[in-house]
Amino acid sequence: MRIVGIEGTAWAASAALFDSETGEVFIESDPYEPDSGGIHPREAAEHMGDAIPEVVSTVLERAAETNDGDGAGVDGVAFSRGPGLGPCLRIVGTAARALAQTLDVPLLGVNHMVAHLEIGRHGSGFDSPVCLNASGANAHLLGYHNGRYRVLGETMDTGVGNAIDKFTRHVGWTHPGGPKVEEAAAEGDYHDLPYVVKGMDFSFSGIMSAAKDAYDDGVPVEDVCRGLQETIFAMLTEVAERALSLTGTDELVLGGGVGQNARLREMLAEMCEQRGAEFYAPEPRFLRDNAGMIAVLGARMLAAGDTLSVPESAVDPNFRPDRVPVTWRDDEESVARDPATANPSATGATAPGGSEVRGAEATVTFEADSVVKRRVPKTYRHPELDDRLRTERTRAEARLTSLARRAGVPTPVVRDVDPTEGTIVFQYVGESDLAEALTAERCRTMGEHLAAVHGAGFVHGDPTTRNVRVDGDRVYLLDFGLGYHTGHVEDHAMDLHVFEQSVEGTADEPEPLCRAFEAGYASVARGDDGDVDGRRSAHRTQSGDDEDALTRLRQVEGRGRYQ
Ligand SMILES: C[C@@H](O)[C@H](NC(=O)OP(=O)(O)OC[C@H]1O[C@@H](n2cnc3c(N)ncnc32)[C@H](O)[C@@H]1O)C(=O)O
Ligand SMILES: Nc1ncnc2c1ncn2[C@@H]1O[C@H](COP(=O)(O)OP(=O)(O)OP(=O)(O)O)[C@@H](O)[C@H]1O
Ligand SMILES: [Fe+2]
């Protein structure tokens, strides 16, 4: 099968030919490089208008050359439908429709973010990896489950490349800034910046304003660049490790233009090696925006009969990867490994009675009725950052675990703490993790407990189904290391979002579980009676004045975070 791909979501005017028999991917690209500032949508669209016909004709010449003079020999035309800049996408869509009609072959509408992921799966041969997409306009973790790519975690504000590019604009460097930061960082000393991870979500706005302030205050730009790389990439590596731990998979692939950064690849490779997982990063021409990845996914879609008619082929600037019906994969496949058969060092599953378990952050050993949790140094992180995080989180965990108990939430008793060593001794609790024993009733209780925590003035910070232990009806909360004091509705909503995301990433039927969870939360937070359907009650308060966490949760879920 031979597929022509066309890409032009933002800066890369690109066309490609993929031949599934020979495996060859021929790519011709023409980048838009703004004279000053960032990407201007109108200028970028003008660039697409000029460059797309040229790159397409080069690829068609190549197609004719490699087809023994027997025409182009093309079986389908694939194009990026979104996400991306509307004016650019429309030009690419028009070009693709015209080409498909001229060649009289099917049209294939590709989600650009799924293409960043699938090219890694194609190159690695992995079955069902977690994918970290680190691109300009996005930053998220994807995993396949129940016929869709689920977003396991994502940025709460800008994409990672855009965050870096905003800093470089501030210091007067031309676009794109990523490669310049990489070069400068090699000459700099580490500078401390804010580190923001919430479960598997994260945000860049705090760190970017701190980086600009540091530069304005005279910190050498090389040092700020080093601090930026060390902090941002450690955040991405940490959430990737959390996703491996939560799903139990031992395969990670990288996608997106920021993946060209050697330091990011080094950190991810080191993290994977240490937890016995496999890591694959495509070569740079497949990491940055390119039509090769569009053609490769187009071939899979054509083989599955997933074609588009011209009237239904409109582009979509906010096309989220979790909205794509994944026709080319088997519904039975999943990123979530069966806990019974998964690699125990990769899952963090508990084996009581003397053994050792590895979570995403810590090593946990079981001794009689005690559990010793040690935040082991993470060698992928800069040592200063690593020391700071381990000490801060150990302190927070000991303090908030005890505060939660005082608020009436079951937690293990804290028996000993040593923040500088990063160790805490806890009482052993529960029979299994909630992840392996998910029921609506327990999710409901979990909702009640989180509402009590919020009522006591703090958030858990990472309430996934692996940070909850259960024993009959008892539901214990663990692992408060990412918690902090706050009364903000946004922070409360993030806790709810993290829990529901972890349920959606692992459960076959998440809907009733999330409903029960929300009903439990509402019953404590709002004093509703126990039978209220959480979603209905969320709607009810939407019309009222005082916004609460459940109402805000709907907004958090609905945010299109492509900025
Ligand atoms: C929707 C689509 O248009 C968008 N594409 C995109 O963002 O281009 P991509 O090629 O994946 O990534 C470009 C980003 O990648 C950064 N970048 C390139 N080389 C880098 C390096 N060595 N270190 C850090 N960042 C780098 C650039 O600064 C820029 O922000 C996306 O995939 O989100
Ligand atoms: N007090 C305890 N009683 C029983 N089991 C526990 C206890 N503390 C931890 N565990 C088990 O060890 C696993 C890892 O613990 P914990 O979540 O605290 O570590 P972690 O490294 O922070 O994990 P992650 O970052 O992946 O959430 C838990 O999922 C749980 O199965
Ligand atoms: Fe991209």
Note the topology.
Elements (H helix, E strand, L loop, with lengths): L1 E6 L4 E8 L5 E7 L9 H25 L10 E7 L3 H18 L3 E5 H13 L5 E5 L4 E7 L2 E7 L5 H11 L7 H8 L11 E2 L2 E2 L2 H12 L4 H27 L3 E5 L6 H13 L3 E3 L3 H4 L3 H13 L40 H4 L8 E3 L4 E5 L2 E5 L8 H24 L7 E5 L4 E5 L4 E2 L6 H16 L2 E2 L8 E4 L2 E4 L6 E2 L3 H18 L3 H16 L8 H9 L6 H10 L5
Parallel strand pairs: 1-4, 4-5, 6-11, 11-12
Antiparallel strand pairs: 1-2, 2-3, 6-7, 7-8, 9-10, 13-14, 14-15, 15-17, 16-17, 18-20, 19-22, 20-21
Helix pairs in contact: 1-2, 3-10, 4-6, 5-7, 6-7, 7-8, 13-15, 14-15, 14-17, 15-16
Bound molecules: threonylcarbamoyladenylate (TXA), adenosine-5'-triphosphate and fe (ii) ion.
Enzyme class: transferase
Protein name: Probable bifunctional tRNA threonylcarbamoyladenosine biosynthesis protein
GO molecular function: ATP binding; iron ion binding; metalloendopeptidase activity; protein serine kinase activity; protein serine/threonine kinase activity; protein serine/threonine/tyrosine kinase activity; tRNA N(6)-L-threonylcarbamoyladenine synthase activity; zinc ion binding
Brief sketch in words of this structure:
The chain has 563 residues and is α+β, with helices and mostly antiparallel strands. It is built from 17 helices and 22 strands. It starts with a strand and ends in a 5-residue tail after the last helix.
List keywords for this structure.
563 residues, alpha+beta, Nucleotidyltransferase, domain 5, Phosphorylase Kinase, domain 1, 4 domains, 5-stranded mixed β-sheet, 22 strands, 18% strand, binds threonylcarbamoyladenylate, binds fe (ii) ion
